[in-house]
Write a structure and sequence with these properties.
This protein is an alpha/beta fold. The chain has a six-stranded parallel β-sheet, sandwiched between helices. The termini are far apart.
Length: 356
């Protein structure tokens, strides 16, 4: 059998010739997926497979090797799994290297562990199987994973915008995403697409997503080209706001009035955005690239594009002025000299006049 290189989870093919497989990393869902792939390949080649599961923290080397080398009473291929295998491998690395040089044909050994220490054992495993990293996926890779999972495991269609929305709301914990995906597929119906409307019915927005709802509206306002006069105080400021500023104010009230978010928290969302914009313009002044800025603030997809468009519109002086202004509104409210939301309304209504 030709050597097989150690590989990343997304590119690994486990087949019926696999005799040893190491699955390691902090994403248990990917470990389960690769184990299912291996089991399916073995069943296709050998029929029903006998599975034996051991706890690597307590099992002895003799127990594992005896199980691998003995034949099943029913003549089945054996799948011997050692969970939490880090300590087991550390204690018996030499013996496992010798076994990997001449494994039996009627059994497959799987070593599963959150952590793995590379060494010569990896080289020998690669000759007869694979060492598979199962690390958490970044958002850009979690989206296509979700789409494949929807089709293969749940018989549902998941368009890219809906998959991206799920990742934005829930993060990249694949087990949690898969659990929500099962509910969404049932709600959408067999073979039907899971739309963002379906997601809205079942999946609550995280605090991060609620923050982005306000920040996205403000960023849209920063990109508005025409200057339009607006007043700076009281109800006149709200009444004279441009249509884009009106959308920001509506989003602020939506989160407070309908989503139950405290006004202090919504104000923080706006202050935090201008803090980031100020820092980003300073980074740009010092020669940082768009990619470095996006990585610093963990931005991707539409968020990345909107944020970078805003800092390309601002210079460091104007970004500092905006940050100073919104902090002063926030300070006035916190010291009893104003109202959080009224201050935000006035600040957002004033922005178009102050844009370049």
């Amino acid at each position: 059998m030709p050597p097989r290189p150690a590989s990343h989870s997304s590119a690994t093919h486990l087949d019926a010739d696999t005799r040893i497989c190491a699955l390691h990393g902090a994403e248990p869902m990917l470990q389960r997926e690769h184990l299912d792939m291996l089991r399916a390949a073995l069943e296709a080649a050998h029929g029903e497979v006998e599975t034996i599961l051991y706890d690597g923290r307590t099992v002895t080397l003799a127990e594992v090797l005896d199980e691998l080398r003995s034949f099943s009473l029913m003549g089945r291929h054996k799948l011997v799994i050692v969970d939490e295998a880090e300590a087991f491998v550390t204690a018996h690395r030499g013996s496992l290297e010798r076994y990997a040089q001449s494994p039996v044909d009627h059994a497959t050994l799987v070593l599963r562990s959150p952590r793995w220490h590379p060494g010569n054992l990896d080289k020998w495993i690669a000759q007869v199987g694979a060492v598979v990293k199962c690390d958490p996926l970044p958002p850009a890779r979690a989206v296509p994973w979700l789409q494949r999972r929807a089709t293969q495991a749940h018989g549902a269609q998941l368009p890219t915008p809906a998959a991206a929305e799920l990742v934005r709301r829930l993060g990249t914990d694949l087990s949690r995403l898969d659990s929500e995906l099962a509910k969404l597929a049932a709600l959408a119906g067999p073979g039907k697409p899971i739309t963002t409307d379906v997601i809205d019915q079942l999946v609550a927005r995280s605090s991060d997503e609620q923050a982005w709802a306000v920040q996205e509206a403000v960023l849209s306002l920063l990109q508005a080209l025409p200057r339009q006069r607006s007043l700076f105080a009281g109800r006149e400021a709200e009444a004279s706001a441009t249509p884009t500023a009106r959308a920001v104010i509506d989003k602020i009230h939506e989160l407070i009035d309908f989503s139950g978010q405290p006004d202090v928290l919504v104000a923080y969302f706006v202050v935090d955005l201008f803090r980031k914009l100020h820092l980003a313009t300073m980074m740009k002044l010092q020669g940082a690239s768009d990619s470095q800025i996006a990585e610093r603030f963990r931005l991707f997809g539409p968020r990345r594009n909107a944020f970078l468009a805003a800092i390309n519109r601002l210079d460091e002086r104007r970004a500092a002025e905006f940050f100073d202004s919104v902090v002063r509104f926030d300070l006035r409210a916190k010291t009893g000299r104003g109202d959080f939301i009224r201050g935000l309304e006035c600040f957002c209504a004033s922005l178009p006049e102050r844009l370049p």
